[in-house]
Amino acid sequence: MNLALHVYEDIMRMTENLSEKYIIGYGASSTVYKCVLKNCKPVAIKKLYSQYHRCIKEFETELATVGSIKHRNLVSLQGYSLSSSGNLLFYDYMENGSLWDHLHGPFKKKKLDWTTRLQIALGAAQGLAYLHHDCSPRIIHRDVKSSNILLDKDIEAHLNDFGIAKNLCHSKTHTSTYLMGTIGYIDPEYARTSRLTEKSDVYSYGIVLLELLTGRKAVDDESNLHHLILSKTESNAVMETVDPEILPTCTDLGPVKKVFQLALLCTKRQPTDRPTMHEVTRVLASLMPSPAPPKQPTPANLPSSQLPITKVPCYVDEYANLKTPHMLNCPSMSTSDAQLFLKFGEVISQNSE
């Protein structure tokens, strides 16, 4: 069924005039509803408040960005409908809500193991890398946060909410714009200078990594997560902040430490010191557990002591010693990866500069 053919009156009928019982979320300028279409397919309907001029701009921005691009880690826009009481955007329905829901909200009882958290981090990073490096013009999301990372039935991450996204031509290094975003995630340099670059998204993404690692909110009352991690880093106690739900599902804390280092690099004060999202995805992919090799049948006439030994790549061994790059010789890791991790090793002592 082509959602573009759905007119406003059809949606009103199927949702009982957008009854409150169909609400699944709220935004600063919108309400999100769940609607089951005639073909039994569920969709998410985002209604932007019509009384604000800003909402018209956000509606047009979403159509111009996510309406013209496709990626497995971005929400897919299926259509829209126009009305004087509020324009509607139709998106794929995400069965598992947002990352924020799982870390801090109604889905918190569904515990996220370490591998799942890594997979979510990688998926969100791949979506951002696509916006920054594969779109023309480049797209800066401008509001990366855990509530804008939606999870489908397989817990795969999808970036959401492009209402304040900005395009950046390849010939430009930045764009000057008034400050927008969410407290706790906003790049301090963007806040100070109003100069927006892809590295502003990288900073926000680094805060999301810290949420995944600690289970804490970016801002909670008067507590700022990034400031907390920096203070713990100075006293070499950052691992004390690891979410207790991670520990039973992580046999080796080495990769957890690497993701902490990655988050610290993403949130460096100077944007030029932060990695690109391509670099972030490469590092996270290298930390993902390798799939178990299929069992090989044992030849009946060959004693087990004479069977060939197959060495399975071990990422723990790969990154066992950041100070000895000659040891980082696993085939799955390039020289540039090794250099990148050496750089991460220096972040701990320099991040507060």
Automatic annotation (TrEMBL):
<dbReference type="Pfam" id="PF00069">
    <property type="entry name" value="Pkinase"/>
</dbReference>
<dbReference type="InterPro" id="IPR017441">
    <property type="entry name" value="Protein_kinase_ATP_BS"/>
</dbReference>
<dbReference type="GO" id="GO:0090567">
    <property type="term" value="P:reproductive shoot system development"/>
</dbReference>
<keyword id="KW-0547">Nucleotide-binding</keyword>
<dbReference type="InterPro" id="IPR008271">
    <property type="entry name" value="Ser/Thr_kinase_AS"/>
</dbReference>
<dbReference type="InterPro" id="IPR011009">
    <property type="entry name" value="Kinase-like_dom_sf"/>
</dbReference>
<dbReference type="GO" id="GO:0010103">
    <property type="term" value="P:stomatal complex morphogenesis"/>
</dbReference>
<keyword id="KW-0723">Serine/threonine-protein kinase</keyword>
<keyword id="KW-0418">Kinase</keyword>
<dbReference type="GO" id="GO:0016020">
    <property type="term" value="C:membrane"/>
</dbReference>
<dbReference type="InterPro" id="IPR000719">
    <property type="entry name" value="Prot_kinase_dom"/>
</dbReference>
<dbReference type="InterPro" id="IPR051824">
    <property type="entry name" value="LRR_Rcpt-Like_S/T_Kinase"/>
</dbReference>
<protein>
    <recommendedName>
        <fullName>Protein kinase domain-containing protein</fullName>
    </recommendedName>
</protein>
<comment type="similarity">
    <text>Belongs to the protein kinase superfamily.</text>
</comment>
<dbReference type="GO" id="GO:0005524">
    <property type="term" value="F:ATP binding"/>
</dbReference>
<feature type="binding site">
    <location>
        <position position="47"/>
    </location>
    <ligand>
        <name>ATP</name>
    </ligand>
</feature>
<dbReference type="GO" id="GO:0004674">
    <property type="term" value="F:protein serine/threonine kinase activity"/>
</dbReference>
<keyword id="KW-0808">Transferase</keyword>
<feature type="domain" description="Protein kinase">
    <location>
        <begin position="18"/>
        <end position="288"/>
    </location>
</feature>
<dbReference type="GO" id="GO:0048827">
    <property type="term" value="P:phyllome development"/>
</dbReference>
<keyword id="KW-0067">ATP-binding</keyword>
